[in-house]
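User: My instructor asked us to take a sequence, write out its structure as tokens, and then describe one feature of it. I'm not sure where to start. Here is the sequence I was given:
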Amino acid sequence: MIHSHIRSIEFEYEKVSRHWLVIHTSISIGLTIASFLLELIVFFVLDRLDMISSTLPRYMIRYLIIPTGLNLLILLVILLLRKLYPKRLSLQTYVVSLGLVAMCFVLFTIHSIFPSLYFLFAIPLMFSCLYGNYILTTITAVCVLVARIVGDVVIVWDADKVLLLDNEYTAVNFVLSLLILVGFYIACMTLIFFEKEKSQAAIKKEIERVQYRHGMIIDQLTSLYNRTALDEVLAHLGENDDGLVCAMMDIDHFKEVNDTLGHLIGDDYLKRFGAILRTECAQHLVFRYGGDEFCILFTGISQEEAGSICKRIYRESAKILESGRIRHTAAASYGLTVYQVGQTSDELIQAADNALYVQKRMHKSNDDRR
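Assistant: Let's start with the prediction itself. The structure tokens for your sequence are:
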């Protein structure tokens, strides 16, 4: 039960990551559109001010068509891989994160005459840390640093660009930009660390709450649900439960088991009887009502089918004690009733109890005749 609850928490975290992945992808799409529109606006402004040194076709190819085309190609790869591997969340996070690095690399390289544009690389770095994955953020950071170095040292896209070794100011600015990006990486890793600490603390508290709750509704001797759990279930019966079959069970002559063989044997009988109930009623709700009384709520089957299960339980329970150890047979009598919409929980239990005592009287008559 605890394991399944942890898995459900992890599933919720995964849902959050998938939601962020959708936003992350949308940001990549938005960046492609925004950069194209910005390039278009800059082109018209520079053209109006007669500040374009090259021919218009050459300018459009170098600063509008090529960067937009490359970003569209990167975006196409992102969307294609997401479509091909829809269930592989980890792969998709890498693709989207590194794809955004590639887009920022294109924009930075095309406009590397503006040194402050290196701040673009902080965007994919910060976005990657929201997945809470140390490896993803580290790989993204390495790609960011490589892209920053290649875009500034290897590729010279603009003839007006000041080269790295042209003056000390450019070299110092380059080194400082790398240090700042490394600082962003350290900040992101720190953020991931503390977010994981918070998540682990929250999961720990939730596990403690579930364990406490589990202890409150589970009978310690038989490991079945207890009376508290039964009361909660019965309190929420409604129209959707019409046709639910309720069985009340009582072990015949259980007092004789305790009085003759001792309470330890009696407790062992209850444990083994609980195991029979769990096996025979694996798809249904089973409760220890109190003492040697039990309640079963059958769903999705008829009263006749529930009766067949109860008969098997009766036969199996009669085999728990070796014959002759007590004077009478210690087997579980049962009574069945079908829930009617509008019926109170007390009325339902009372109806099943009445049916139970009819059967117990029959068993008692048979024992007396023996």
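For the description part of your assignment, you could build on this observation: The two ends are 46 Å apart (CA to CA). Try explaining in your own words what that tells you about the chain.
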